[in-house]
Amino acid sequence: MNEEEFDKMMEERYKDGSNFVRYGEDDFENKRAIDRNNIIPSARDPTIWKVKCMVGRERNSAFCLMQKYVDLKSLGTKLQIISAFALDHIKGCIYIEADKQFDIIEACKGLTTIYSSRIATVPKNEVSHLLSSRITRNEVSEGSWAHVKNGKYKGDLAQIVAVNDARKRATVKLIPRIDLQAMTAKFGGGVSLKKNSTPAPRLISTSELE
C-alpha cells in the first residue's frame, strides 16, 4: 500500500457518518462527570515510547504497526504492545505504548520505516501534554494565494482553487511554464534537446496546444 492509497483509505474510514467517527458532543454529560485527575497517567500505567521513523511516513508507520498487530493476532500470536499513534504536529517519530523496550523492538521487526533502535521514553509528567487537544487553524483556503516551494514552479505565485483537508492536498492554478518547441519535437517524432533552464511563465491559448 502506497501513501496515496493509505490516505484514501483513512479518508473513507473516517468520513462523516462513519462508525469509526465520534464527535465531541457524544456522551458529553458523562464526560463532564469524569474527574480530571483520573486521566493523569500513574506509575502503574504502561510506558509511552517515542520511536524514530521516516519523516513524512508517521501515520503510515503507525497504521502498518497496528495492521501487523491485527494480522498476527488473527494467527494466534499477540504483539506485546498496547497502542501506536502518530501526531500530525510532530515529525519523524511515532509513539508506542508498551511495558518493555524489547517488546517494541520485536513488534517493529520488518517495518522498514520505523527505526526501532532509536527509542526514548516519554516522561509521565509530559504524557497529558502530549495527548492534549491542539486547535489548528487551516491556513489554506479556496481563493487564497500561495507560493510554490519546490519543483519547476518554485517561487511562483499560485491561486488555490480546491482544498482536501482529509488528504492534506490542494489544487492550484498558476501560469504555466511549458516549452512548446520541446513538446513539438517530442510528440512530433523529433529529438527533444535537454535544457537546464526552466521555461518562462507564459499564458498559452488552446490554439497553441493543438
Automatic annotation (TrEMBL):
It comes from the Eukaryota. GO terms for biological process: regulation of DNA-templated transcription elongation; regulation of transcription by RNA polymerase II; transcription elongation by RNA polymerase II. SMART domains: NGN (SM00738). Residues 45-134 form the NusG-like N-terminal domain. GO terms for molecular function: mRNA binding. One of its GO terms (cellular component) is DSIF complex. It holds the Pfam family KOW1_SPT5. Keywords: Transcription. This is NusG-like N-terminal domain-containing protein.
